[in-house]
Amino acid sequence: MVRGERDPPKKGWEVGSSSWLLNGATHVDLGARLVDGFSEHWWAVATAVGAAAFVVGGAIRSCLVERRLRQRLAAAEERFQLLAENSSDIVIRVGREERVRWVSPAVTPVLGWLPDEWVGRSIFELFSAGEDGEEVLRQSHRSTGSGKSTVVRSRMPAKGGEDHWVEVHAGPWRTADQKSDGMVVSLRVVDAEEHARQILERQACTDELTSLFNRREALVRMHSLNSRSGESVAVLWCDVDWFKQVNDTHGHATGDAVLQQLADRIRKSLRTSDDLAARMGGDELMVVLHGVRTLQDACDVAEKIRLCAAEPIPTAVGPVSVTLSIGVTVARPFEPADAVIARADTAMYRAKQSGRNRVVAVPEGQATEAEVVSAAVARRASGAASIRIQPAGVESAEWAGSTPAIPPDGDLPPGASNC
User: How far apart are CA 120 and CA 100, in angstroms?
Assistant: First the structure.
């Protein structure tokens, strides 16, 4: 056997052979190894190798390459199994027929289902009833058809029936020749993240003290309601009479408790889910009624709120009684929110001027510009207090509050009506 010179390393499989003469026959030994291109090696070539040797060498090369590929495939499968069995994400293989072909074992510890209980089912069946999961996945399917991936959130039931928020990542599944063949979907439970998001969203649109809508959110929703054709919107502008006296006499903690109770009573007086109540600032509260038929209908709701508000409110210092002056108006279709609120505010100011603790309505077009300006300034004028502490041991029906008598309509300013 003749040794060759030392050569630089080369990548790929190499076949070496050795031969010798024994009993008049030529014997050939063949071997092969993989060179990674980073380490040097010695190789040998037989002095005489017949054609058959090359054939045998080629066969050996082919077998060893297949063996190495099988080893690599086994290693890849091992890594995939390691990820599939230890990842908290649920991975789903969805075919073009929109049915589950395979699901990772994580579905059991996360949602309680066995993988076989999902395989064969429509992917849309897996989402909670009433959720938009089907539309979400159909959008994802359309997106994956164009090679895009989507990320959405929806609710999905566990096997025990409890709903969980999941984040859905959906992308195209491609075959070895890069043809699209359904989707690969991964699910991650995001209950904590969704809960935190909802809290932040709620804080952004509600008043911290009363949990009513804040001014910004109320204006947005009011504009949306008034933009619906064919349905009237009424605004009730409510102001707590002599509220400063509550804070001055009993402290701000008592004043906060009074506002919270008033907000709760107003909330319970709403008729439908389209109605809304908001704290517009300080002791100013607004109610928006959607779908009222007449101004009188709005006044009826306002009167109900006024009566509820006048009931003594239990606080740490004892029952406190307050009253509301409420201005009512009906918005014209597509009328700016500021204009409607200004008219309702004017009606509320007229209620203050007429003795407080009453509902006054101003039809559209009745409030003058001068009244609107003066109402914004004068409605904060001081007056005699109407807040009393109910004496201990005296029943509400026996306690005489300071509610002023409601004058007849003729005693109100021009253009206003006492509902």
Answer: 5
Q: What is the pLDDT of residue 99?
A: 93
Q: Determine how many CB atoms are found less than 10 A away from the CB of residue 31.
A: 14
Contact by Cβ (8 Å): 212, 285 = yes
Q: Is 379 helix (H, G, I), strand (E, B) or coil?
A: coil
What are the φ and ψ backbone dihedral angles of 238, each rounded to 5 degrees?
A: -110, 135
Cβ pair 277, 305 in contact under 8 A:
no
Residue-wise pLDDT for 322-332, tens only, equals 999 999 999 99
Give the list of residues 6+ apart from residue 237 with CB closer than 8 angstroms, or none: 284, 286, 326, 327, 328, 341, 344, 345, 347, 348
Give the pairing type, strands 320-321 and 359-361: unpaired
Looking from the CA of 217 toward its CB, the CA atoms found within 13 Å total 16
Rounded Cα distance between 219 and 71, Å, is 67
Identify the CA nearest to 211 among candidates 286, 138, 298, 277: 277
Both structure tokens of 6: 């030392």
| Closest to 4 in 3D by CA, of 41, 48, 36, 34 | 41
- Can you tell me which residue has the tokens 């909802």? 198
pTM of the full structure: 0.58
List the one residue out of 282, 264, 275, 207 whose CA is nearest residue 235: 275
Q: Show Cβ contacts of residue 56 under 8 Å, excluding neighbours closer than 6 positions.
A: 28, 30
- In angstroms, the CA 353 to CA 154 distance is 53
**Residue 298 host element (H or E):** helix 295-309
Instruction: Express each pLDDT in 118-148 by its tens digit.
Output: 999 998 888 876 655 556 666 665 655 566 7
Q: What pLDDT digit, counting tens, does each position of 190-202 carry?
A: 999 999 998 998 8
CB 156, CB 143: distance < 8 Å: no
Q: Is the pLDDT of residue 62 over 90?
A: no
Q: Find the farthest-apart pair of alpha carbons in the chain and give their distance in angstroms, rounded.
A: 139
State whether residue 90 is helix, strand or coil.
strand
Nearest to 354 by CA among 286, 285, 262, 417: 417
